[in-house]
Amino acid sequence: xSTPASSSFPVTATAVRASGATLAxxxxxxxxxxxxxxxAPRRQHGSVVATMDQTAxxxxxxxxWSAPAGETLAASVLVRADLDDRDRxxxxxxxxxxxxxxxxxxxxxxxxxxxxxxxxxxVAGDKVxxxxxxxxxxxxxxxxxxxxxxxxxxxxxxxxxxxxxxxxAVDDAPTLADAVLSAFHRALLEAVVALAAGGPAAETxxxxxxxxxxxxxxRIRLELPDGTVEEADxxxxxxxxxxxxxxxxxxxxxxxxxxxxxLRYA
Length: 266
Fold this sequence. Notes:
- With 266 residues, the chain is α+β, with helices and mostly antiparallel strands.
- The chain folds into two domains: 14-210, BirA Bifunctional Protein, domain 2; 217-265, SH3 type barrels (Roll).
- The chain has helices at residues 14-18, 32-39, 85-104, 173-197, 199-212; strands spanning 23-24, 48-51, 57-58, 64-65, 72-79, 113-116, 120-123, 126-135, 141-148, 218-223, 229-237, 243-247, 252-255, 259-265.
- Helix 3 packs across helix 5 (199-212) and helix 4 packs across helix 5.
- The longest helix has 25 residues, at 173-197.
- The radius of gyration is 18 Å and the shape is globular.
- It starts with 13 loop residues before the first helix and ends with a strand.
């Protein structure tokens, strides 16, 4: 790791410590995902690296992620579980739903918090959190999340971003970071246990993901990895975790990878 596992970041995260997993909180680091990937084979399931000063974060599609020091949370969780290929494909979606619940827990009860497929968390249509899952050399998965905590409007990274403070959260940044991390860690690991169990427990997790997804029922702009762009209606999430769409010609299909923009309700 690029920095020692100590800082003024007052993470209590008792659930992390009680599980026996490692909790590292560097004062500054380039990337919590990179840090955890480096040591993943030697860390227990559920281990965490978290900081409020990440200098070289990355998002989906290898985009850079801007993170003002002291006003954002970057956290990565190690998932090592006996999941089949389909359920491993659900991990990014499950992580998004877990973070959606964590974010909602620190906001006013009337806040509209949803997941934009596959796992961006939005409040009132603006992005407050992004998630990136990466596979470690031992086959475990590092689930990384970046949350805008207290960034003011004039310093947001994009015009379509928001922060927990702007969405109505009242606590300071360290308190919010600790609350969100603790809730996210708990919800993510509980969902992983349910996925591994299979049967009704796994179906309940998938149902919760679908319920949290604000993309379903919307007209979307879909940019595919080959650069193709189209408008379509998002109709659901299939059993493989793909967003299902109906294109303008009326044809239906599932899409596994793509960049989604919400346009309006279908």
